[in-house]
Amino acid sequence: MAEIKPIRAWRYNSSLANKIEELTAPLFDVVSDKQRQKLYESPYNSIHLSVPQGSNPAAKAKQLLDSWKRNGILEQDVIPGIYVYYQYFKLAGSPKEYCRKGFVCHIRAYDWKENVILRHENTIPKSVNDRIELLEQTELHASPTHGLYTDPNFELEKYMDEVIQTPLYETEDYQGVRDVLAVIQDAKIIQCFIDLIDPVKIILADGHHRYESSLVLKEKYATRNPNHTGKEGYNYHLMYLTNTEAGDLRILPTHRLIHGIKNFSEKEVIKKLEIDFDVKVFENADTLNEIIMGKKWAFGIILKNHSLKVRLKPASINKITWHFPQEIKNLDLTVLHYFIIEKIFGILGKDQRESEKISFERNFSSCLEKVHQDEAQMAVITQEVSIEEIKQVCASGFTMPQKSTYFYPKVISGFLFSSINESEFQSLPYSRF
After folding, report:
1. I need a surface site. Which of 101, 166, 415, 417 has the fewest CB within 10 A?
2. At what angle do helices 125-138 and 57-70 cross, to 10 degrees?
3. How far, in Å, CA of 327 to CA of 194, rounded?
4. DSSP sequence for 97-119
């Protein structure tokens, strides 16, 4: 059902790879402006390909990529492989070290209607368009998206645990995470990966915009190719796959910021909240994220002059008029986007994806700061989404609002690159793949 292939990755040459930490970068949608400017100072950092700058960034990335290939900055692996990628990390307030285990490969870019790769949240159209142009110009996946497969028997971990002992790279990234990459090139073991993934469905955890860019490009290239076979490079996408059954899969909350509302009144907002929520006022907002933890339909509200814990009144859940199944209506984020963003601020559900009045912030302290410095009129503090909720959403065929989940840690860009250019995508004649 889910077809994967090993890849002939493009990687930095051995002399540069000795300082791999100077070549890696955060994903395009999480890198801050300050980080970005620092990374641009390094002439060979992967950010020049993943987040190119300038008036025509995609064309500039294409020109730079060609130069790096021509001058040996990047070299393509001769033998195709499955790239094992482990991330060792800790969470604030806990001494436990987690290890998220996964592997990077090519996966066929399935249309959503094929029900093989499942999405759980909406995308923002402008971000998709930017990614399409970059992929079309460079024909290069500069970083993998993140997908989830389910294997309760942990069949692949034994192969990954063995090869990770002899890594290609090991570095500490911008998150304080230890990233380790290794490669499996044994054809028999690669076939084990292919066979295990073949019958399963994949949940797209992170990278919805990049995945949709692959879908758009696939359709465009297939339409204009009279000899389309389905085996061309443009039919495939680069993905990092991890097991949903592992205990080291962490999903952190993404909070909502509201700004640009005309005639904004804290008093009026509180009055409207009291219609459907039980509202409790707190002296300060410093512990709101802890106060709401584990409480269904509970949110923290940060206003310039008020700090609130709000929790939906159980009877109000039946007021939701959106045409969703009940399990989707019951989600915290559905409650937030319906009762707060639509009913209080008048931003209809169908308009929320493109609304400039809503922004997203993962850091609780930053929410406090932005409201108190008048960069936002209000912050809505959310809780973690569970993997079981995500499975439930995917099974329903519906999606969560955009930016509903933040899988942690994020993968980094720069360990490897994947080409969909036909001359570079196809394996050599003697390869069974």
Report:
1. 166
2. 30
3. 33
4. PEEEEEEEEEEE---GGGSSEEE
Residue % of the chain over a pLDDT of 70: 99
Instruction: Note whether 17 and 169 are within 8 A (CB).
Output: yes
Query: Rounded CA gap, 266 and 293, in Å?
Result: 24
Of the options 3.30.1760, 3.30.70, 3.10.620, 3.90.15, the CATH number for the domain spanning 254-383? 3.30.1760
Return the bridge partners of 55, or none. none
Contact, 412 vs 47, CB < 8 A?
Answer: no
Architecture per CATH, domain 4-250+409-425, reads as Alpha-Beta Complex (3.90)
Check whether 123 has a pLDDT greater than 70. Answer: no
Angle formed by the axes of helices 208-223 and 125-138, nearest 10°: 50
Q: Which residues contact 199 (CB under 8 A, 6 or more apart)?
A: 1, 2
Contacts 24+ apart (CB under 8 A), 221-226: none
Domain boundaries, the chain: 4-250+409-425, 254-383
- The pTM score is 0.87
d(CA 295, CA 313): 12
Q: What is the pLDDT of residue 327?
A: 86
Whether 427 shows a pLDDT value over 90: the answer reads no
